[in-house]
Design goal:
FAD/NAD(P)-binding domain; alpha/beta; D-Amino Acid Oxidase, Chain A, domain 2; six-stranded mixed sheet; nine-stranded mixed sheet; single chain; about 25% strand
């Protein structure tokens, strides 16, 4: 059953650009609020970055990527061909300004503010997901069985102390395990696992594509409009309704929501909004006959590899590659992800594995952009969620719908404003 429309929208029209998980959640929440919503996607819904993520629901991923000690490690990571951070030859000069902002975001005082801002979104993430999952009949697509973080040495375990403390400070339950205790929890783990922690309250999505598809289907069945078109331009003339120009025509609306992931950068720039957004290209290998049966998702902290039980097999994912958005994928990195996964789970079988690559739209400070385009209240921005787009999708949708309805958002949106850089 769909929720009765809230009169807040009053039938006003909204165009949402982008039908990944973030844009889809924006469209669903706007429709719930009584807006007439058109969702535009150049591909099939959910088949870009939202298709290939690790399925992680990172409710306690409070710490940002950039931390005070990281600057010492980045040079070595960049030249290590097996590192979780890869920079394509020739890309570093183009990415250098982003990396400088990234390092500046790792200053201690800045990190504390970023943690608070991430915590505000993550603490509300499931509360925003629950109603729309229930209405779409998709509750079973988020499972809460817990997650295991494994370490291969005492040194790496000690290196993870800050992240664990930040999670504890945020209320996470954390069970510390020896290597043997970790193997009792998850028998597929191998002898390299020295220590581990188990977070029993974390969940995952066993099929991120199906989650997005079911939400889109619910949106359309409730009267929303879905168009498969490529957006070329967003036009906003002062005093006139904004227009979205696609390869097939023009669409007018009272409001436009830009939620097109990495492709938001170019569209926002046309409106004078310049957010330092980089693609941290991720890779996965889907293993339909993996040779193991997992009880829990597993994260190798040393190798930044995620091993996740999915509906169609085991997905191993990882890597943050800076290569721009036009370079072809380097699928050798998907093989590297499997190599990293096998280090902690040697029984994995990769025969018949299907590689994938997609663009994570990442800001230097690990915070998304949520709010009005500066100087342009008829365009709302919802992009830059980096590695937590799936987790933050619903809370972003709820906040966007509150803004569109002229309500005071349930969270202070100052940390996510587009002009913070």
């Amino acid at each position: 059953m769909s929720k009765s429309p809230d009169p807040a929208g009053g039938g006003r029209s909204v165009i949402v650009v982008g039908a990944g998980i973030v844009g889809t959640c924006c469209a669903v929440y706007l429709k719930r609020a009584g807006f007439a919503v058109t969702l535009i996607e150049r591909d099939a819904p959910g088949e870009a970055c939202s298709f290939g993520n690790a399925g992680s629901i990172g409710l306690t991923s409070f710490a940002p990527q950039s931390l005070p000690s990281l600057w010492r490690k980045i040079p070595a990571m960049m030249i290590d061909r097996k590192s979780a951070l890869q920079v394509r030859p020739g890309q570093f000069p183009r990415s250098f300004p982003w990396f400088m902002r990234f390092l500046m975001a790792g200053r201690p005082r800045r990190v504390a503010k970023i943690i608070a801002a991430r915590k505000a979104l993550l603490n509300n993430a499931m509360g925003a997901f629950d109603p729309i999952l229930a209405e779409a009949g998709a509750q079973g697509l988020i499972e809460t069985h817990g997650k295991i973080f494994v370490y291969e040495s005492e040194r790496s375990y000690e290196g993870g102390a800050f992240d664990r403390q930040v999670r504890r400070d945020g209320g996470a339950r954390i069970e510390e395990l020896s290597g043997d205790e970790a193997r009792e929890h998850e028998p597929a783990l191998g002898p390299r696992v020295h220590r581990a922690v188990f977070l029993p309250d974390l969940g995952h999505c066993p099929n991120p594509l199906r989650l997005t598809q079911e939400l889109v289907e619910h949106f359309v069945q409730g009267g929303g409009t879905l168009l498969k078109e490529t957006v070329l331009t967003i036009e906003d003339a002062t005093g006139a309704a904004p227009r979205v120009i696609t390869e097939t025509g023009r669409h007018e609306a009272d409001l436009v929501v830009l939620a097109a992931g990495i492709w938001s950068r170019a569209l926002a720039a046309q409106l004078g909004v310049k957010v330092p957004l980089e693609s941290q290209r991720g890779y996965h290998m889907m293993l339909p006959e993996s040779g193991v049966s997992l009880r829990y998702p597993v994260i190798s902290v040393d190798r930044n590899a995620l091993i996740t039980p999915m509906e169609l097999g085991i997905r191993v994912s990882g890597i943050a590659e800076h290569a721009g958005i036009t370079a072809p994928p380097n699928y050798a990195l998907a093989d590297l992800v499997v190599e990293h996964a096998r280090a902690v789970m040697p029984g994995l079988v990769a025969d018949g594995g299907e590689p994938w690559s997609g663009h994570r739209p990442s800001t230097p400070d690990s915070l998304p952009v949520i709010g009005p385009a500066p100087g342009n209240g008829s365009v709302l921005l919802a992009y830059g969620h980096g590695h937590t787009g799936l987790t933050m999708g619903a809370i972003t949708g709820r906040l966007i719908s509150e803004l569109a309805a002229g309500q005071t958002p349930g969270l202070d949106l100052t940390p996510y404003r587009a002009d913070r850089f």
